[in-house]
Amino acid sequence: MPIPRPDIHTLYQIDLAWFENNNRDFRSELHSALCEECRARYPDASEKRAIDRVHPTTAEISRVDALWESVVDHCALRADYIAPTTPMTIAIPRALFANGNQPMSSEQLYQRIRKNSAEGILRVLNKGTDIEFMVQAENAKK
What we know:
By secondary structure, the protein is an alpha+beta fold. It has helices at about 15-20, 25-30, 35-40, 65-75, 90-100, 105-115, 120-125; strands at about 10-15, 50-55, 60-65, 105, 135. It has one domain. It contains 7 helices and 5 strands; from the N terminus they run E-H-H-H-E-E-H-H-E-H-H-E.
């Protein structure tokens, strides 16, 4: 059975298992995406804190990681979270952090980061050396 060639609609996400398998710290990567205000609130990336998050539409309360919540509900809303000068290899993971690591296509990533083009983002994702922890969503190990 042939493997379909990825296109701008192929979904990608961060493979969290990649960090464990490569002795890398995902929390440090996530911490690096925090704005200065949140970094001051959470100075230690290794400290795990769970907080209550209220879903903005359903008002459902769930326990979430404080770093994720900070990125999603605070840092990602700032104009400088992904600035025009942010390198694409940083902007792509930041877009996925802000999206709670829900899969995104290169077309969706382009709409979020406005860098290069959907095709250019796809080339970066498929190159695999600049952002090794990015995989096609169906290949991610949770």
